[in-house]
From TrEMBL:
Polar residues biased stretches: 1-14
Taxonomic placement: Bacteria, Pseudomonadati, Pseudomonadota, Betaproteobacteria, Burkholderiales
Region (Disordered): 1-23
Protein name, per record: Restriction alleviation protein Lar
Organism encoding this protein: Massilia jejuensis
């Protein structure tokens, strides 16, 4: 898959297979997170690297799998 044709949708969590969600908590900060993430430090916590754009955030996330 080339960068140009990369999908705009995040893949499922590479660790647990749950759907991932794109988050945009503030301008120019996008990242993808597993929907099964736990707030506990010892819990399941899978985050993609934060990026300036949604597309880049999804690309970073998809590299995890
Ligand atoms: Zn997960």
């Amino acid at each position: 898959m080339s960068e140009k044709n990369a999908t705009a949708e995040p893949q499922n969590c590479p660790q647990c297979g749950a759907p991932a969600e794109v988050r945009n908590p503030k301008p120019r900060r996008w990242f993808v997170a597993c929907t099964k993430n736990s707030e506990l430090a010892s819990g399941h916590r899978v985050l993609g690297h934060p990026m300036f754009t949604k597309r880049d955030a999804i690309l970073e996330w998809n590299k995890l799998s």
